[in-house]
Structures are given as C-alpha cells and as structure tokens.
Amino acid sequence: MSTVLVTGIAGFIGSSIARALLAEGAQVRGIDNLSTGSMANLEEIRSQIDFRNADVLDQDAVLHACRGVDYVFHEAAIPSVPKSVDDPIGTNGPNLTGTLCVLEAARKAVVKRVLYAASSAAYGDSPELPKTEAMLPSPLSPYAVQKLAGEHYLASYYRVYGLETVSLRYFNIFGPRQDPSSQYSGVLARFISLMLAGQTPTIYGDGSTSRDFTYIDNVVSANLLAAKAPAERVAGQVFNVATGERTTLLEAFAEIKRITGYTGGLNHAEEREGDIKHSLADISAAQSAFGYKVIADLVFGLEQTIEWAKESVAAV
Q1: In a domain, 68, yes or no
Q2: Where is the NAD-dependent epimerase/dehydratase domain (predicted)?
Q3: Are residue 250 and residue 116 in the same domain, yes or no?
C-alpha cells in the first residue's frame, strides 16, 4: 500500500487502522470533522500523517483527499442507534450521503479499492444465529438502514463503475481509545470506565442480551487483509468481522468485575428502542475469502482495554 486515505481517522477505529497502516509503511492521509473523533487519538502519529479537518459531506474536500490514493478506508460515521432514532435525518447525512460522497470521489480519483465500515445492525432482530451474509437483512433502526444502504451503494459502484469495494460488517467493537464518555461508545467502554471509578453501570434489559464482542485488533487485521485480497475474492461483497463467539451483558459485566476488582453492583433499565436482542457472527466467509482469523479473544481484549483505561486515568 503506497498511499491510503482513512475517513474518520481521529475516531477509535480510524486511528487504530491508521497506526497499523503506518507500521506497514503506507503513506497515510486522513480526514475528520472531529464531531465524534478526537485529535488525542492521533497524538503520537500526528506528524506522520497528512491530516485534513474536513467533513465527508464536503464533496470538494473528499475529492481532493482521494487524489493519488490507492485505498480508502471509510470509517467516518455517527455510530449510534439511539442517536439515529432521535435524529434520523441528521444522521442520514454523515452515515449515508457521506458514504456516497466518498464513493463518488474515489471513482473520480480512480482509487483502487474502498473498504467500508458496515454494521451487523443490518441483520436486525432475526432469531436465527449465527448471522451469515446470505441472510435477508432486516434493519430495525435508522442507523441500521443507513449502514445497509451504504453497502448497496458500494456493491453498485463495483458493478456499474468497476470500483473495487468491500463492506465489512463490524460486530460490537471495543478496545483502547474508545471514548467512554461519548454517547456513541459501546457498552464495554462505559462499563470499564464506571467500574474503575467505583460507580455503578447500567444494563438495559435483564442482562441476557448477547453480543459478539470484537476486540479492535481483529477489525484492523480484517481491514488490512481485505485490502490486499485478490479482487475476484472480495470485490463488491460483504463480510462479517467478529469472533464467532457471543457473550451476554451479565457475563461481560462479571469478567470486567473480575479483572478490575470492582466490588459494586449493577443497575437495570428498560430496553432501548432499536436495540437487538442477540448477535453472533458466522465468520467463515471472511476466513475463506481473505484469510481472516481471530487474533484476540474477549478476555485478552478486556485486559488490554482495562490496562489502557487505567493508564489514561493515571495520566490525567
């Protein structure tokens, strides 16, 4: 990879992908409007990247950023089901129209391949487990609809224009640099932050809700592997990125309690609109197409994330 563009580079996932790309010797360019991302995520690599404070809805800025780029890793989004329920029109812009702007810029700039941060929310609340890419999508929330529509745009751009695209459906990602104070953060980041502070976390529902919690290193690895895979194996397609294991919220709470030494309890609240009950991925398609494998399990990921969280608190 010679030159790459990461949208949403100041975010939790985008900054993690950027670090891995730099480690592989790529020239990294990034855009972010900093609405959900933070420059703190780029602190130690800021001098090594071409950072541009821009919005993915700014077509001129995105086209300029795509010039001379080989690969685009499109991570920019407002990744929140509750936010999309509260503001479906406001989130549609960044999540869907922004994706279209990126695709059109990549097409005009003759980019080799676009990798897209799709979402497991596309599957909805179908009781069938595990989720396979061949299942009929059934999105519940506006966020899920927006991300699914983005997948269709990517497939269309491959079929109509020949732009190589790959959609990676992320399942509940967690890890260092995920901001626990943000309304967009995942449940594990909030649990860890609260429990380290001796505060009581809240579970929406009875705690039996389960997720395929996926440590960030797995997601980064999947992106790099999918970028390098032969076009005939991946172009225009959708792949699950997860661990193939599911954990209930109560089990996750218990594991974090064990690692942190938290001695408090747990609050319960009503389930939220748009939330799905269970999520579990079949990852065999990604394994077959581009050699994806789980390189970090839940316990390892929690240990690494909790250690980072402790160091972050100590540094303040």
Answers
A1: yes
A2: 4-242
A3: no
Q: 43 pLDDT exceeds 80?
A: yes
158 is catalytic: no
User: Which residues are within 8 A (CB) of 126 and not within 5 positions of it... i.e. 6 or more apart?
Assistant: 135, 138
Return the amino acid letter for 189.
Answer: A
Supply the range of the domain harboring residue 124. Answer: 3-174+213-243+280-295
Does the pLDDT at position 106 exceed 70? yes
Neighbours of 46 (CB within 10 A): 13
Residue type, 73: F
Mean pLDDT computed over every residue of the chain:
95
CA distance 300 to 306: 10
- CA 31: distance to chain centroid? 16
- Give the dihedral sign, CA 237/243/251/199: negative
Can you tell me the distance from the alpha carbon of 79 to that of 68, in angstroms, rounded to the nearest whole number?
Answer: 28
What is the arithmetic mean of pLDDT over 209-217? 96
Question: Under a CB-based contact definition with an 8 Å cutoff, are residues 71 and 1 in contact?
Answer: yes
* pLDDT at residue 291 greater than cutoff 80: yes
Given a contact cutoff of 8 angstroms between Cβ atoms, the answer to whether 52 and 30 are in contact is yes
Q: The domain that contains 45 carries what CATH number? A: 3.40.50.720
The structural domain count of the chain equals 2
List, as own/partner pairs, every contact residues 225-228 make where C-beta atoms lie below 8 angstroms and the sequence separation is at least 24, other chains included: 225/290, 225/291, 225/292, 226/115, 226/166, 226/168, 226/286, 226/289, 226/290, 226/292, 227/1, 227/71, 227/73, 227/113, 227/115, 227/166, 228/1, 228/290
Q: Which of 71, 143, 157, 184 is catalytic?
A: 143
CA 167 – CA 161 distance, rounded (Å): 16
CB 200 within 8 A of CB 260: no
